[in-house]
Amino acid sequence: MPSSVMPTSRHGGGHASPTAISAVGLRKSYGEKLVLDGIDLRIPAGSVFALLGPNGAGKTTAVKILSTLITADAGDLHVGGHNLGADPQAVRAAIGVTGQFSAVDSLITGEENMLLMADLHHLSKSEGRRTAAELLERFDLVEAAKKPASTYSGGMKRRLDLAMTLVGSPRIIFLDEPTTGLDPRSRHNMWGIIRSLVSDGVTVFLTTQQLEEADELADRIAVLNDGKIAAEGTADELKRLIPGGHVRLRFTDPVAYQSAADALREVTRDDEALSLSIPSDGSQRELRSILDRLDSAGIEADELTVHTPDLDDVFFALTGPARVTNQPKETVR
Ligand SMILES: Nc1ncnc2c1ncn2[C@@H]1O[C@H](COP(=O)(O)OP(=O)(O)OP(=O)(O)O)[C@@H](O)[C@H]1O
Ligand SMILES: [Mg+2]
Fold first, then answer.
1. Using CA atoms, how far apart are residues 136 and 92, in angstroms rounded to an integer?
2. pLDDT-based confidence at 313, cuts 50/70/90?
3. Mean pLDDT of the chain
4. For FRET with 214, which of 42, 138, 302, 318 sits at 20 to 30 Å CA-CA?
5. Closest Cα partner for 96 from 175, 155, 160, 187?
6. How remote is the CA of residue 316 from the centroid of ligand 2, in Å?
7. Is 234's C-beta closer than 6 angstroms to any atom of ligand 1?
8. 270 C-alpha vs ligand 2 centroid, how far in Å?
9. Which of 190, 199, 114 is nearest to 159 (CA)?
């Protein structure tokens, strides 16, 4: 599988975006175990980057290194314009981190957790109170603010976790699996919160195992496997790496079905469902050619659907010990 590294240093009006996070040759082993085997990343400021990978791929390790919690064995690493090795303090001042496991202290209230963070950021008492109140409001935690965090639901705890991360107004935030364990509504809420951060110009580095999440949020996605970046690109670029796209035509009239099967070459037939599947990249040109051939044979399909491979296909094709073959998800008998 070829990896696709398509650097995009340009956003919108063709201006080069400054780089928020960069890594060249990032390596990390735990004892004998090589976790990150020379990884290169470049994340433009103001964008969302998703690091995808199966359990144990090294996502949290990458987050911990880039957020200065642990050190790398090798690599030229910069965050917020600062060299990680030379100036970790400056990096810490520029970033916020929401770890995979909650940093919320359950024994104290949500408000007290926020005020503790404000203290850690050396905000004055009044500034701390104002920031805490603003963030509690923004994260819909005002009602719960005076209750012990142990009484919060998973989604509330996650929101409090992120609110605490934002106390220092970081311009770069790391979110390690921000929505794992959240129900669909809470997950969508969290996505909304992340989008609003990005619209304020914040750079987001997130890890996830949910392909849908990467597809929804990320400008660029890297798939981590076996210590290396197996592929990197936009969701669409990654989907294009995997064959399996097809156009599906469904008929109710068996005669029309048979004529279409004759008129179109390279079809996979499903005689029971009266449906035909034609390999296609879903481009306008290919669709037109299919429709032209149906038109000139005087056939009208009852339903036409275009299937492009989704990120699940990409993920399964690129990760894990048993790499599956590139079957379209919708298999046609
Ligand atoms: N402190 C440590 N000591 C030894 N091995 C470690 C340590 N931390 C992580 N590892 C190992 O490094 C590998 C990568 O772990 P990491 O937590 O980065 O994976 P991950 O991609 O975040 O996984 P998950 O999706 O389960 O969170 C795993 O094999 C893990 O067992
Ligand atoms: Mg992890």
1. 23
2. confident
3. 87
4. 138
5. 175
6. 18
7. no
8. 43
9. 190
CA distance 239 to 159: 31
**Predicted local distance difference test score (pLDDT) of residue 311:** 74
HEC profile of 157-218: HHHHHHHHHHHHCCCEEEEECCCCCCCHHHHHHHHHHHHHHHHCCCEEEEEECCHHHHHHHC
Alpha carbon nearest to ligand 1 atom 8, residue: 61
Q: Structural domains in the chain?
A: 11-104+152-240 (3.40.50.300), 246-307 (3.30.70)
Express each pLDDT in 266-299 by its tens digit: 888 999 999 999 888 778 888 999 999 999 999 9
Enter the tokens of residue 36.
Answer: 């990150």
321 pLDDT tier (thresholds 50, 70, 90): low
In the block, tokens 């599956």 appear at: 324
Give the bridge partners for 24, in sequence order: 76
Question: Does the structure show a pLDDT above 50 at 322?
Answer: no
